[in-house]
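Input sequence (76 aa), recorded before submission:
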Amino acid sequence: MIKVIEIKNLTKYYGRQRGIIDVSFNVEEGEIFGFIGPNGAGKSTAIRTILSLIYQTSGSAKIFGKDCLKYGPKKK
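Predicted structure, token format:
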């Protein structure tokens, strides 16, 4: 199976405040994936990081094998 989304040790800090710490998961082709959790769990931070709307402190995120930072949207 092809890994559509591949997240490894994704971490985002806002100064001393944590956004997400060491989030890792894979979504393979054909899977249905639910991203749920309580308020403040970091769901929006993780998604915004995967979409390169914000930059991770450490870790990596890939979509179809391409790095989200390198191949993310270009800033104008």
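Checked by second reader. The two ends are 36 Å apart (CA to CA).
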